[in-house]
């Protein structure tokens, strides 16, 4: 049971890292995610059903996501429309494409085929099947995290971070921001699709509606993670995203388990996720207001003290 | 070094808001020139910079830089050899990143590869460079924590690191307090001399424009009305410049601040 929450959270965390790249590092509000996660699930499922090895299936899912992200970036670059609109366009188009990939079916099961989650218990024979799934997923997530951490420390990765902070600065350094966006949004959606490919194997089916509301869930996870600690180091940002994803899934798990006590059903989860995002934003805002109020109080106290000592001197 | 031929810029052509911002400007910049550009608000100084750096495409005309036609070249490619500093100190650096990450991005121009160039040797070099502006112990601090003057000084440092051939300075000290403005200006002078840069600088301060550089250009309504260099320039006074403007344009110079602020 507890292992299930962690596997769920870890599979989800790869998507959260993808969203972290677009929203936080590139500062590009990308909604392609809702489509590309289902694309990844569809591609991986069809590849596995078609008899391809799991690694190839996951690689294809990743590449499918990269292409989806690049389409969004290209629409944004060439037509000069906001990233948000470009993402919505791609996401909508992807819905049809995903149905095509799934052979015009809304749902394709992964029955009686070898998936990552049937293989892992055999591979880690000394563990229970649940723990084997957990350890296997954790290894995949750590692999992705380390690659992403290294990438964002390379010159190319640093320039992507710079673009997220200040696009003009990147242009002034002779870098074409359009190419950075193609690569960055491509990478982001590649990871999101990879997460979709793992999710399909974990839950045992791919669904064209899999992606609905995923962006908001991902944002909720990022914001929950941001309460844990603050840093601008990439390794800690990705760690925070992973922890946030697990905490989010745990919250949802307990919501499913004990929600009925307060009359909450899984139908309410989208509403609750939205409220969680709003609450996180509200708390973050209140916090910064409180710390600036604290700074103000201290500043006043300092100047009062200074005045008193000065007055003391003049009296003396 | 830079040759502008009949450069014209019309904003919003074909609409009621159509505006002729740059009107048939011809300008020849020699290598090593340090040109101050003065003119009242809306005279086209910043638009001219935007055209040279490629932020906007020209409506008509031709621009040759270092022997190659750059008229159709995108902004990021021109930036390989033309450095630019804006009035707004936040435009030249990325606030969400550390000083060292900003510097590594500025070290080489152009698209970056998958190498990790930032190492301790580089950090040592950067520390030395940063000691010029008193930031040698803050390599890992986010640029967002710096003051406007410190950020502008860092922008200047980052600009010269990549050795541009020409620099455009768009009132780059105007948003700073007098002391920081002086520091940034001293640093500008020092770098221009040290790296033998060709520079174009927009300023509102006429006295400064007379004292600084070897050439002075005055703009009005999108045209260059006055271009003076060498000995003729050093003999100028603010009063003479204002009188000249009145004679040439048959109106008074519409910027009291420029007359009141002294060097």
How is this structure best summarized?
Chain A is an all-alpha fold. Chain A has twelve helices and two strands; from the N terminus they run ααααβαααααβααα. Helices cover 78% and strands 2% of the residues of chain A.
How many alpha or pi helices of chain A?
12
Return residue spans of chain A where pLDDT drops below 50 for at least 5 consecutive residues: none
Number of helices of chain B: 10
Average pLDDT, all residues of chain B: 88
Instruction: Tell me the fraction of residues in β-strands of chain B, as a range.
Output: 15-25%
One letter per element, helices H and strands E, the order of chain B comes to: EEEHEEHEHHHEHEHEEHHH
Second CATH tier, the architecture of the largest domain in chain A: Orthogonal Bundle
- Residue fraction in strands of chain A: under 5%
The chain pair with the largest interface is: A-B, 26 and 37 residues
Describe this structure in words.
- The complex is a heterodimer of chains A (316) and B (263).
- Chain A has 316 residues and is mostly helical.
- Chain A has 2 domains: 2-264, ABC transporter involved in vitamin B12 uptake, BtuC (Orthogonal Bundle); 265-316.
- The model of chain A has no long low-confidence stretch (mean pLDDT 92).
- The longest helix of chain A is centred in the last third of the chain and has 47 residues, at 269-315.
- Chain A has helices spanning 2-25, 33-49, 54-79, 83-101, 116-123, 129-151, 155-165, 167-172, 177-203, 214-226, 234-258, 269-315, and strands at 107-109, 205-207.
- In chain A, helix 1 (2-25) packs parallel to helix 6, helix 2 (33-49) packs parallel to helix 4 and helix 10 crosses helix 11.
- A two-stranded antiparallel sheet of chain A has the order 1-2.
- Chain A is globular and about 90 Å long.
- Chain B has 263 residues and is of the alpha/beta class.
- Chain B has one domain (2-93, 152-260): P-loop containing nucleotide triphosphate hydrolases (Rossmann fold, 3-Layer(aba) Sandwich), CATH 3.40.50.300.
- Chain B has 10 helices and 10 strands.
- Chain B has helices at residues 45-53, 75-78, 99-107, 120-130, 148-161, 178-194, 206-211, 230-234, 238-249, 256-260; strands at 2-11, 19-29, 34-38, 60-65, 68-69, 82-85, 166-170, 198-202, 215-220, 223-229.
- Chain B has a 6-stranded mixed beta sheet, with helices on both faces. In chain B, strands 2-1-4-5 form a 4-stranded antiparallel beta sheet, covered by helices on one side.
- The interface between A and B is medium-sized, with 26 and 37 residues.
């Amino acid at each position: 049971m507890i292992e299930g929450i962690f596997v769920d959270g870890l599979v989800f965390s790869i998507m959260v890292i993808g969203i972290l790249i677009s929203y936080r590092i590139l500062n590009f509000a990308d909604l392609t995610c809702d489509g590309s996660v289902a694309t990844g699930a569809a591609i991986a499922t069809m590849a596995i059903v078609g008899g391809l090895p799991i690694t190839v299936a996951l690689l294809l899912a990743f590449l499918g996501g990269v292409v989806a992200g690049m389409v969004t970036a290209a629409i944004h670059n060439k037509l000069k429309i906001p990233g948000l609109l470009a993402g919505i366009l791609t996401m909508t188009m992807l819905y049809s494409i995903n149905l095509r990939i799934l052979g015009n079916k809304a749902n394709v099961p992964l029955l009686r085929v070898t998936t990552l989650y049937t293989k892992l218990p055999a591979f880690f024979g000394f563990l229970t099947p649940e723990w084997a799934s957990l350890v296997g997923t954790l290894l995949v997530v750590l692999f992705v995290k380390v690659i992403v951490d290294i990438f964002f420390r390379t010159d190319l990765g640093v320039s992507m971070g710079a673009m997220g902070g200040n696009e003009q600065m990147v242009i002034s350094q002779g870098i074409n921001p359009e190419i950075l966006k193609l690569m960055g949004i491509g990478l982001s959606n590649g990871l999101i699709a990879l997460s979709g490919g793992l999710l399909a194997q974990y839950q045992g089916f791919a669904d064209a509606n899999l992606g609905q509301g995923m962006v908001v869930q991902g944002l909720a996870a990022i914001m929950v993670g941001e309460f844990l600690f603050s840093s601008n180091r990439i390794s800690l940002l990705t760690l925070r995203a992973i922890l946030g994803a697990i905490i989010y899934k745990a919250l949802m798990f307990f919501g499913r388990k004990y929600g009925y006590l307060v009359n909450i059903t899984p139908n309410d989860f989208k509403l609750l996720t939205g409220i969680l995002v709003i609450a996180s934003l509200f708390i973050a805002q209140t916090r910064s207001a409180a710390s600036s109020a604290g700074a103000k109080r201290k500043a006043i106290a300092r100047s009062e003290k200074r005045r008193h000592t000065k007055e003391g001197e003049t009296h003396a | 070094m830079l040759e502008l031929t009949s450069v014209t810029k019309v904003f919003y052509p074909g609409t009621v808001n159509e505006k002729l911002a740059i009107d048939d400007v011809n300008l020849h910049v020699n290598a090593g020139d340090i040109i101050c550009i003065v003119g009242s608000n809306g005279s086209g100084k910043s638009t001219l910079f935007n055209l040279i750096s490629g932020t906007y495409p020209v409506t008509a005309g031709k621009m040759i830089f270092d022997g190659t036609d750059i008229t159709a070249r995108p902004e990021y490619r021109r930036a390989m050899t033309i450095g630019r500093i804006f009035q707004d100190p936040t435009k030249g650096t990325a606030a969400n990143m550390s000083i060292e990450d900003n510097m590594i991005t500025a070290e080489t121009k152009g698209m970056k590869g998958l190498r990790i160039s930032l190492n301790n040797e580089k950090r040592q070099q950067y520390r030395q460079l940063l000691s010029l502006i008193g930031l040698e112990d803050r390599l890992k601090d986010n640029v967002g924590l710096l003051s406007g003057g410190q950020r502008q000084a860092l922008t200047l440092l980052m600009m010269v690191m990549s050795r541009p051939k020409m620099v455009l300075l768009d009132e780059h000290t105007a948003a700073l307090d007098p002391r920081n403005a002086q520091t940034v200006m001293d640093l500008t002078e020092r770098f221009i001399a040290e790296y033998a840069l060709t520079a174009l600088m927009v300023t509102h301060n006429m006295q400064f424009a007379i004292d600084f550089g070897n050439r002075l250009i005055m703009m009005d309504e999108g045209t260059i009305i006055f271009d003076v260099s060498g000995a003729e320039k050093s003999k100028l006074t603010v009063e003479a410049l204002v009188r000249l403007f009145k004679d040439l344009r048959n109106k008074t110079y519409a910027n009291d601040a420029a007359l009141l602020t002294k060097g």
